[in-house]
Amino acid sequence: MSTSKTAGAATATAVAPDVRPILSVRDLTIDYLGEPRQPALVQDVSFDVLPGRSVALIGESGCGKTITSLAVLGLLPARMRVAGGSIVLDGVDVLQASERTLRDLRGRTVGAIFQEPMSSLNPTMPVGDQIGEARWLHLGESRRAARAKAVELLDRVGIPNAARRARAYPHELSGGMQQRVMIASAIACEPAMLLADEPTTALDVTVQADILALLADLQRDLGLGILFVTHDLGVVAEFCADVVVMYAGHVVERAGTRALFAAPRHPYTAALLGAVPQAGQARTVLTTIPGRVPPSGAFPAGCRFRPRCAHAVATCAEPQHGGADGDHFTLCDRVAAGELTPRRRT
Amino acid sequence: MSLTLVVRRLAAGLVVLWIVSVMTFLMVRLIPGDPARTVAGEQATPELVEAVRAQLGLDQPLLTQYLRWLGGVLQGDLGMSLTSPRPVAQTILQAAPATLSITLVALVLAVVLGVTAGVVAGLRQGTWIDRVVSTLATLGIAMPGFWVAMLLISIFAMKLHLLPATGYAPFSEDPARWLQHVLLPGAALALATAAQIARQARGSVADVLAEPYVRTARARGASGSVLVRRHVLRNASIPVITVIGLQAGHLLGGVIIVETVAGMSGIGTLALRAVLDRDYTMIQGYVLFAAVVMVGINLVVDLAYQWVNPKVRAA
Ligand SMILES: Nc1ncnc2c1ncn2[C@@H]1O[C@H](COP(=O)(O)OP(=O)(O)O)[C@@H](O)[C@H]1O
Ligand SMILES: [Mg+2]
């Protein structure tokens, strides 16, 4: 098993040092103990999310973005174990916290929205009850008060006829409406942070823009720190101050958005950016980088991007340490040593 | 749930019953063997057979026969038994309580035991309790109901003398004795059904636990009984209700043997004798009775299904 070590303390965020991150992930390593085993399915992942700011987590499907965000909630799937590192959420060490403490954090300190709004909502419960649930769970509100608040929240996320819609079931709403319901449920207790795992991927392009505008609006209102898992580089550019690029469980690059788009340092990032389709096409990544992300259980040693990398040499099979240029971190040793300067493909 | 929906289901049930009535009617007319001859007896002269045929109305056109027969059925007149001088309807109504008691007790036991065991196993997948439940479920499905009935009776009635071995006491006369009589056959009949329900419940709970909406609920802080009650059980119950509906039909079939083993003269015994004696009117009565019970069960299951599943409710 490879043991690459990222510069743990270096984060991409260049802000006043007295702003305390709402979420701080350091050297997070997760093993998968199922079949086939994949030690370090996620390895040495580090990043900070500051209040009121958005961090993008990007990378192709299967790179460990969802697993990383679930770890923040303390909701790893079966047979996934945290093997090292730390996650500090609003001052609480998530990895050491009791189940009780975690339960109090979920929905109260951090809200979460997921990719498929339809399957992420309980099909047998009116949406208003789902939105209000966090209120009575965390704030001790009566069910009745929570229900009234749910109507307010539905109104807040831009659903017309909120009082009537609160009694609707998920299947009676459109995809965009369902995602608004998810958002309303995630912000019900005015959390400090939001985990958004590909919140617009499953939606129509026109609806995507509305949902993003809503999230931006809520972020401003509530001062939400957002961890934004996305495939959509357009969203990253518009919405996020910082970017964390993951490949097969590694953070291969981490930087301020502008710096990363201007001069990507890791060959994977360069390929990703080169793969952005032109205007008019759906702005999703993938398809144009040859090859694919290795399945869990088959991650290569050393640089995991090596088999697909045009610049790979023998030393890439060694554990990578990378290096930071100011706040701009890359995992590639060749780039860190100045041997290689990836160019965005055009 | 709207009233129109109940009415619509009820109407659908009536249509089914009507189709069954046509089929039972035709069955008796088309089956090999001559009812008139059966009634008249083997040694009867052709003249006597014809006289009986006329008396039974069997010489009339089929439609006339059907309408006359249906008119009687609707007034609760299922005709006379062909082999004994008793009205079919009255005979069936006398035998029904014992059979329905066992079936009902079995259904309640099966649902309570099956759902409880299945849900617990589903919530504790991979633990010893899960393994115990699935082993018992496999056993329960593999063991024939009549054998379980014999086993239970020989243990609890013959050896331990805790419960009566045979017979039946009407609920209206003595509820305690009624329960003593129906408990063993009910439990024997329930076992296989409880096992099927437990399997389905375990599977459904396991499936629902893996659903994204359960993750969503956890992500907002739901856990423990709130999670199970509000998010798991209701969703998991949808396929379980379907299985319960199907199993109810099996119970009605299985009760025939179990009540025989338990020495009760119920509907099953009646039906069996009617078949052996070619007592066509009695068979007709039994089929109609079973159809009414099944349609009733399906109606209840259907309504329960729609009550828990809002997606069907709208349709
Ligand atoms: N519940 C799970 N059990 C086992 N492996 C999983 C599970 N969920 C995800 N994985 C594996 O973990 C890796 C990372 O997955 P994921 O975090 O979902 O990727 P992403 O969100 O970046 O698309 C993939 O190889 C995926 O197959
Ligand atoms: Mg994902």
Q: N-to-C terminal Cα separation of chain B, in Å?
A: 11 Å
Overall body shape of chain B: globular
What letter string, H or E per element, gives the SSE order of chain B? HHHHHHHHHHHHH
**Average pLDDT figure of chain A:** 90
Instruction: Give the helix/strand class of chain B.
Output: mainly alpha
- Spell out the helices and strands of chain A N to C: EEEHEEHEHHHHHEHEHEEHHEEH
Please indicate the percent range of residues of chain A in DSSP E strands (runs of 2 or more).
Answer: 15-25%
Total DSSP E strands of chain B: 0
Q: What's the number of helices of chain A?
A: 12
Quaternary structure annotation: heterodimer
Could you tell me the number of beta strands of chain A? 12
Strand content of chain B: under 5%
Please tell me the CATH architecture of the largest domain in chain B by its name: Orthogonal Bundle
- What fold name stands as the CATH topology of the largest domain in chain B? MetI-like fold
Strand order of the largest sheet of chain A: 6-7-8-3-9-10-12-11
| CATH superfamily label of the largest domain in chain B | MetI-like
Offer a concise description of the structure.
Chain A is an alpha/beta fold. Chain A contains twelve helices and twelve strands.
